[in-house]
Fold this protein.
Amino acid sequence: MHPVRKQRLILVLVLVGLSSAAVALVTYAMRNNMNYFYAPSAFAAGEVPFEKRIRAGGCVVPGSVVRAGDSLDVRFALTDGKAELEVVFDKILPDLFAEGEAAVVTGRLLQDGRVRADQVLAKHDENYTPPEVAESMAAEASCAGGAKI
Amino acid sequence: MAWQWFHRLGSPRWFYQKTSAWMPWLALASVLLIGAGSVWGLGFAPEDAKQGNSYRIIYIHVPAAFLALAGYYIMAISGAIGLIWKMKLSFVVMRAAAPIGAVLTFIALFTGAVWGKPTWGTYWVWDARITSMLILLFLYIGVIALARAFSREQVADKACALLALVGTVNIPIIYKSVDWWFTLHQPATIKFTEKSSIDPSMFYPLLTMIIGFYCLYAWTLMAHTREKILQREWRTSWVQQLMRGKSMTESKAG
């Protein structure tokens, strides 16, 4: 390789290397803000501020969804396998919201440790299965135990 | 000489003549693959157990997103080759790749929003995956805008190549964002190192679409590059000759 070209190649590599390093440092410094939501264990550890607009995400604990008979009020628990977080909500849940499926809620952390949500989003997992196959897998919950959120 | 083939590849004339033969085959392959993949994916693949029919948007969304990322590397590497070897053709490929990449990124974002509404319950969230994908769109638009900001082609080429190279850092971030941080977007379905989490009956039409999109991408990139070659080289004798030959056959046919 011609020495001039070699020099330009090194310059290009240095440019890419340095700009990548700069971005890597910035994203590392902002790693907490890069997360779209807090996991329930972050609430348990007291890392989440009270009465501020925050998001929480986790697996909806099977059997935890309780609906009020006379209104849209609903409460459920989210888990990441380490801790549980109780959520209260008073609007319509998305179609794909279900027990054993992941959900992300936006709202405020109340003093009693519950989250009052004003938005609930269903978080879809990466699995695509036809209905027959899903049935034969014995209706296995996709995030059971909250190991994966 | 080991580098001879490489320098010949850099000749716009050689590229134009070689690709003339490839263009119809690539066009045919893209039409067949995308046609077959669409009918297979939309008509014959089973519906998803949880999402029903709305999942079928992956047959557009995933191939477009794949090519939006791969196309960025094509643009940036072409820019690097242009900077290092001062190769005209390489810069032409880089400039041609920018609008195609922008369109593909937009398609990925748009189909994602359309799918997000019935699945998540919202069109848009500012999570790491979607935000980094939006940055990719801005990078592509930035390269297009920068190319038009200079009156001298050579200056524009260099500036675009530098921006494209700096932007490459975004590609691994987009790809790994779903693993590094909590995002609303789900992690990758098609995995290269382990079993993909999609049923084969849904995966094969998707694979057909992805290969079809690759062919279509190659065709579009070549068509754009060929057009730009003619624009840049119009003064040369081979382009003049080509144009004269074309107008002669056209007048004969007419």
